[in-house]
Amino acid sequence: MFHKIFSVALAVLVLFSTVSFTVEKHFCGDTLIDISVFTKAQKCDMEAFEAEQAAITKKHCCKDTIDFVKGQDQLTIKKFEDLELNQQLFLTAFTYSYLSVFEDLSRHTIPHKYYSPPNLVADIQVRDQVFLI
């Protein structure tokens, strides 16, 4: 169970480290109105009024900021030959020992496969007066 949880956590870590996204924020004055991650941020009601006043005052009270979070775009993939000798030795020994755990038992001979137990002449528990309580 721990192995599955650990592998899923590593897969999610790789996924989130390579994903890029943008965070768009809309401010009206100094007040944050809306934050959006994948879509456009909603504009406030002052945006329409501001368009009319822009010709007169030339000053905007609303502003949009966009923060771009760039993920990792190049993953390094090492080959077996790129590893140092100690790492190659460890990886080879670990793989060999791990795969030997899952040997197929059908190839091995089982010496007691066709053994038939002896016939019981008497009930030994009753004869020796030994009972489980």
UniProtKB/TrEMBL annotation:
Keyword Signal attached: yes
Keyword Signal: yes
InterPro entries documented for this protein: DUF8199, HYC_CC_PP
Residues in the signal sequence: 1-22
Keywords: Signal
Protein name: Secreted protein
Source organism of the structure: Mangrovimonas cancribranchiae
